[in-house]
Structures are given as C-alpha cells and as structure tokens.
Design goal:
two-stranded antiparallel ribbon, mainly beta, 43% strand
Amino acid sequence: MDADTAVLHDVPMIEGGRYSLNLALFFDDGYAHSDYVILEWPGPNSTGN
C-alpha cells in the first residue's frame, strides 16, 4: 500500500517553519534507503487549500 499522508502526533512545530523529515522503510527482508522530505508548516494566515 502506498501512502502520501501521515499524522505526526505530539511533534511541536513552529508556524511558518520549514522542516526536513528523514524517512526510512523497514520490512522483513531488509530496508529501503532513507529519503529526506522537506515540508513547511503553514503560518496562521494560510488557507490550507
């Protein structure tokens, strides 16, 4: 199953901040090399659409 969304519970982020998230996938036979995902947490004036 492919996923393109996730929920980060209890992770403090500053509004308008830019972050780098390192993702690695692990499974029974090994792992996939990690990849960095850049994301921006919207500021208070963002519409979200």
